[in-house]
Amino acid sequence: MNRIPQLINAVALIGLLTIVPSVNASHQASISFTQENDLFSGSDGHYTNGLRFAWVSGRDNPPPDWAVKVASFVPWFPKQQPIRHGYAVGQSMFTPRHTRDTNPDPEDRPYAGWLYGSIGLGVEQNEQLDILALTLGVIGPSSFAGETQIAVHEWIGSPKPMGWDTQLKDEPGINLMFQRSWRGLGRTQFNHHQLDYTPHLGFTLGNIYTYANGGITLRYGENLPFDYGPPRVQHGLPTGTDFAQHKNFNHYWFAGIETRVVAQNIFLDGNNFVDSRQVNKNPVVADLQFGVIVDWENSRLSYTHVFRTPEFDTQGRIDSFGALTYSWRY
């Protein structure tokens, strides 16, 4: 039985990795790599690291049959609009604040890892983007988060995290995510530059996360591109990583806020089917983020810094981490 989550995860990831190269991508497809880490804020603990590779089809790509069929079953998707699809694989890790303790504080966040693959669809109409994504993966030792963090700490000469043997147990995970964004719903000019805002609403359902979310992103720049702001690992929406190509150098600044009403967070609530460490989560969590995006021809580099309100009762202070993303269109 202990090998079942490993088998499920291996099949999902192998399937994604074999599908991506077989897609007949045009010059409009994009690849992105995102690294989120609390090292950017000079701390180490709680949500400590996230990695994600994503591929998104181009606007000129005819969608595969499965994408057309799935989109036809989503009642709120705009009809007769081009369907974008994307794939992503990633890993996230969570630790308590003090990683040198062999027996971590039971009132601090438990050790946990999450290894996953995502398939997403995106449909845009009149500057409104709908994204639907299915994510499958595994938490626990089979996520290899412990081995990854220990290896990285040894490589950079940091103290070895000592409490991974107390992490959450193996459990397969599934999440269905939806988000709707309205690009540039409001626009104005300020100091000879463009200023707009893009609100979004969404929900996530599953045994990993269950929450409703809503927020807004402000963008400020001389020549704002046709996109929906910076990509983030936590959202798990691969088709949201697309960006508009520029012939010359371009950049813009952004700031935003998102609030989530959380019913389930397995990384705080603990395993669903076996006993594990857990803490009492806060039902409402907010992220304040800001950063900059730089475009050059077919490349994009973005940095996002995030301040997150306490996610559990005994956390005591706001968490902070950074997200660095490089994207390339071909």
Walk me through the structure:
The protein has 330 residues and is mostly beta strands. The chain has a single domain, classed as Outer membrane protein (Lipocalin, Beta Barrel), CATH 2.40.128.140. Helix content is 13%, strand content 46%. It is built from 4 helices and 13 strands. The chain has a 12-stranded antiparallel β-barrel with strand order 1-2-3-4-5-6-8-9-10-11-12-13. A hairpin with a 2-residue loop joins strand 11 and strand 12. The N terminus is likely disordered.
Would you kindly provide a brief summary of this structure?
The chain is mostly beta strands and about 325 residues long. The protein is built from 4 helices and 13 strands.
Tags for this model:
330 residues, mainly beta, Lipocalin, 4 helices, 13 strands, 13% helix, 46% strand, globular
Write the layout of secondary structure elements.
Layout (H helix, E strand, L loop, with lengths): L3 H19 L7 E8 L8 E11 L8 H8 L10 E13 L16 E14 L2 E12 L5 H12 L14 E12 L3 E5 L2 E14 L2 E13 L28 E16 H4 L14 E13 L2 E10 L10 E11 L1
Antiparallel strand pairs: 1-2, 1-13, 2-3, 3-4, 4-5, 5-6, 6-8, 7-8, 8-9, 9-10, 10-11, 11-12, 12-13
